[in-house]
Amino acid sequence: MPTYIGSIEKRQLLLDVLVSNPKTNKTSSYRALLDTGATISSISPKVLEELELSSDGWMPVGGVHGDQDLPTCSVGLHVSITELSQGQQQLTTTARGHSRMKVTIMGKKADTFDVLVGMDLLQDFHLTVAKGQFILSN
């Protein structure tokens, strides 16, 4: 089964994801936090700048500090999944996710991540958390 296995670091489910600009195909890897309590994924201003993305609207978002309107943009967002090739003993890595999805833009950069992966992407995966590790599979 295709999987990504990660370690829980300081009670955070962190992994590397690929983010791309759908207009230019410019792609880069960023550290991400998996957040099952977030309905929509978000990127930091750093990602917005480095991938030359631009805001394309606003979205009302509710959180622990109340509701606020956040700017949005469209990105490609993928997790690198490793799988054993059929009939071979060779591991291959493929990117699984969405080539175009709407995300919000964080007001400021977090200390340990530049992308917050919410349920809009996580709903496509099976997530298991146990004994200091997490496994994403699909």
Please tell me the overall pLDDT.
85
Amino- and carboxy-terminal Cα gap: 7 Å
- The largest sheet has its strands arranged as 2-3-8-4-7-6
Structural class by secondary-structure content: mainly beta
* H-E order: EEEEHEEEEHEE
Poorly predicted regions: none
Strands, total number: 10
Structure annotation, total helices:
2
**Helicity, in percent?**
under 10%
Instruction: Output the radius of gyration.
Output: 15 Å
Q: Write down the overall geometry.
A: globular
Could you describe the largest sheet, including whether it forms a barrel?
Answer: 6 strands, mixed, barrel
Q: What can you tell me about this protein's structure?
A:
- The longest helix is centred in the middle third of the chain and has 6 residues, at 45-50.
- Strands 2-3-8-4-7-6 form a six-stranded mixed barrel.
- It is built from two helices and ten strands; from the N terminus they run E-E-E-E-H-E-E-E-E-H-E-E.
- With 138 residues, it is mostly beta strands.
- The model has no long low-confidence stretch (mean pLDDT 85).
- 7% of the residues lie in helices and 58% in strands.
Topology, element by element:
Blueprint: E1 3-9, E2 12-20, E3 27-34, E4 42-43, H1 45-50, E5 57-63, E6 66-84, E7 91-105, E8 115-117, H2 119-122, E9 126-130, E10 133-137
Parallel strand pairs: 3-8, 4-7
Antiparallel strand pairs: 1-2, 1-10, 2-3, 2-6, 4-8, 5-6, 6-7, 9-10
